[in-house]
UniProtKB/TrEMBL annotation:
It holds the Pfam family DUF389. InterPro entries: DUF389. This is DUF389 domain-containing protein. The chain crosses the membrane at residues 114-135, 141-162, 174-193, 213-235, 242-267, 273-296. Keywords: Membrane, Transmembrane, Transmembrane helix. The keyword Transferase does not apply. The keyword Transmembrane helix applies. It comes from the Bacteria.
């Protein structure tokens, strides 16, 4: 279930209430007249089955409440109610299969922003990958995969291209185009410092073979990237968010970036080039597979979101 809160002008309250009463997937309807201050108006609240949420949001936007008031949606973890059970049973489809498209746009728009937090995470992840290369540690490499924030912009690019939201595509592209080079340059600098301080055994790094798969780019690299991208987008468009951790661990974007940075410092240009190729293959594969999943689920589109500005908060 999702909790829906609508702030609306008093003259639109009756229409909102009638709309929610007519929706079999909505329940726990509450009307609070005149309590909203900014913007002024009434507040209408209801709990809505996930599979009915996209239709409800579309209907609310059709009466301009996204402009005249506000529509907010949040996840309900637990709802102990016969009325809630009846609403979920009455709503068509399964909640895990339902896509709330406005929620997806908002989420990917937020996760694709280039900011200090994104740069911090991608830099730390790349540094961890560099340490993994230097120490030949697969455990540290897995840690780098989990910390990496790159799936957010990749998912945003897929959503933006499929839904023709070029503002979302450009935002995500900027985050990736700036984030990876910055992280790789800092990792290269850290490698140089480690080498100067005697912490880096060049011969040991060159002879290590536990992480050879990072720069061993090939057909299976693309297959894994495609499967990970599909799983990641399925997770983001459903209520199965726990699957994202597996996606992070299976994609070798961050490891490839870290390996390329270390290999460049060591003068291992072939490994550097192969690692960069691995990075490109993974980036493209994830976006293609995520976009394909969205195209398959295109039949569930309802809300018209084209042209709606992304959140900058």
């Amino acid at each position: 279930m999702l909790h829906l809160r609508v702030v609306c002008p008093p003259e639109r309250t009756t229409a909102v209430v009638d709309l929610l009463k007519a929706q079999p997937g909505a329940t726990h309807l509450i009307v609070l007249p005149g309590v909203a201050v900014a913007p002024e108006g009434d507040v209408v609240e209801a709990d809505v089955a996930r599979e009915a949420a996209d239709e409800v949001i579309e209907q609310l936007c059709a009466i301009d409440l996204d402009h005249l008031g506000a529509i907010t949606v949040e996840q309900i973890d637990t709802a102990v109610s016969d009325a809630a059970d009846e609403a979920m049973a009455a709503a068509p489809g399964e909640g895990a299969d339902a896509v709330v498209w406005q929620e997806l746009l908002t989420r990917t728009g937020e996760e694709s922003r280039l900011n200090g937090t994104f740069l911090g995470f991608i830099t730390i992840a790349c540094l961890l990958a560099g340490v993994a290369v230097v120490t030949d540690s697969t455990v540290t490499l897995v840690g780098a995969m989990v910390v990496g924030p790159e799936f957010g912009p990749l998912a945003a690019m897929a959503v933006g291209m499929v839904r023709r939201r070029w503002d979302l595509v450009s935002r995500a592209a900027v985050a990736l185009a700036v984030g990876f080079p910055v992280a790789m340059l800092i990792t290269a600098g850290g490698t140089l410092l480690a080498q100067a301080g005697g912490l880096l055994d060049v011969n040991a790094v060159r002879s290590a073979d536990n992480l050879d798969f990072v720069y061993d780019v090939g057909v299976f690299s693309l297959i894994v990237a495609l499967l990970a991208g599909a799983a990641g987008m399925l997770s983001m468009t459903s209520s199965k968010s726990a699957a994202l951790v597996g996606v992070f661990i299976s994609v070798t974007t961050i490891p490839a970036a870290g390996y390329a940075a270390v290999a460049a410092v060591l003068g291992e240009w072939q490994r550097c080039l192969y690692s960069f190729g691995q990075l490109v293959v993974n980036l493209i594969g994830v976006v293609l597979a995520a976009g394909f999943v969205l195209l398959v689920r295109k039949r569930t589109w309802t809300s018209q979101d084209n042209g709606r500005p992304l959140s900058t908060g």
